[in-house]
Amino acid sequence: MQTEQLLAQLKTAIPELLGANLVGIYLHGSYVLGGYNEAVSDLDYLIVVKKPLSPSIKQQLMTITLTQLWPLAPAKGLEFHVLTLAATQNFQQPLPFDFHFSKYHYQHYLDNPHRYIVTMHGSDPDLAAHLMILQTAGKVLWGPAIATVFAPVPATAYWDSVKFDIAAAPTQITLDPMYTILNLCRALAYREAHLILSKQAGGKWGLKQLPRQYWPLLRQALRDYQNQPGIACYPDQALHDFATMMLTRLKI
């Protein structure tokens, strides 16, 4: 499995680069929630450091990411944040980050590497959700136990992060129906049953909990997520109705 090669390379290359400044490398997202599929997923991880990285080290990190790690990445690439230990041990919402990269930013980086490196820092509301998943099901790739590095995430902060992620669902659902349908399902699973699920598990939960009229959409999204052959069919009106119903039920 190519991902195992990726993890082995990640476990070697990042400690070699960061040395004594590295606290740990932690996996979250679909890989730890059981919904990982190399054909459609990305690999999510957090790098925790004692002090912020210099521009030079960030440049070297990007070189390693694109030359050594990206060729082994799943279909949606890699997504990582660099966090300081001070930030992870003293949770605030939104959580500050020292550096970030994902497939979404790939071209931005190539267009102007220096600008990307010096400007890519700040805070991210999504990190509360990432950290909650990490603390629920995360895995240590390198470093000390999760509980010793990360302060607990308040439930209110996690829910705020989820709401931020699904706020654009009425428009996003026609642009990326598979992701939005499954994401709304897992949001509702948390809202109504306090479950933290992968997108795939969220869709399966939806098939048991949502009205029968929405099952064709859910089944199509699950087929797409599993990369099964066939022509995807998502009627616009059905997508609109589903998003409206879900946001009403989510009380958003």
What structural keywords apply?
AadA/Aad9, alpha+beta, 252 residues, 56% helix, Beta Polymerase, domain 2, ATP binding, two-stranded antiparallel ribbon, 14 helices, 5-stranded mixed sheet
Question: How does this structure look, described?
Answer:
The chain is an alpha+beta fold and 252 residues long. The protein folds into two domains: 2-153, 2-Layer Sandwich (Beta Polymerase, domain 2); 167-249, no CATH class. Helix content is 56%, strand content 13%. It is built from 14 helices and seven strands. The protein has helices at 2-18, 30-33, 55-69, 85-89, 106-111, 113-119, 127-137, 146-149, 155-166, 169-175, 177-193, 199-209, 215-225, 236-249; strands at 22-28, 43-49, 78-84, 95-97, 99-101, 122-124, 139-142. The strands form two sheets. Strands 5-3-2-1-7 form a five-stranded mixed sheet, with helices on both faces. α3 (55-69) links the parallel β2 and β3 (78-84). α1 runs antiparallel to α3 (55-69) and α9 (155-166) runs antiparallel to α11. The chain starts with a helix and ends with a helix.
